[in-house]
Amino acid sequence: MRKFALMTLFSVLAAGTSSMAMAADSQPAAQSQQQAQHAPISDDMLGQFFDAQQSVQTISQRAIKKLGQTKDKDAAENIRQKANEEMVNAVKDTGLSVKDFNGIARALQSDEKLRKRLSSIQQNS
Length: 125
Hints:
Elements: H1 2-24, H2 29-38, H3 43-68, H4 73-93, H5 98-110, H6 112-123
Helix pairs in contact: 1-3, 1-4, 3-4, 3-6
Domain DUF4168: 42-117
Organism: Vibrio palustris
Protein name: DUF4168 domain-containing protein
């Protein structure tokens, strides 16, 4: 249940970002994603990502706990929406856009050098 709820929260964050990006961006999505994959990620951006990730994780854990305590579908939806808004704000507060945050998260899945750089930043925090 916990993993499902966490995945749901991240999906909501990603979906919310996608709809905002689609409304704001006139480029085709495939071209936009291809460009994001090739954009260099600075150490400053990785530091911002690390800070945002910590906040998003805290918000997610709090929301998961609340979701586990409610059986009301409307209350659960409100918890998800509030958590999504908090996660978006937490990311933006670090100076990253949600699009950049999600792009870095995707890049970390396949780029070992990037993961090592993030690990180094985490150790120095």
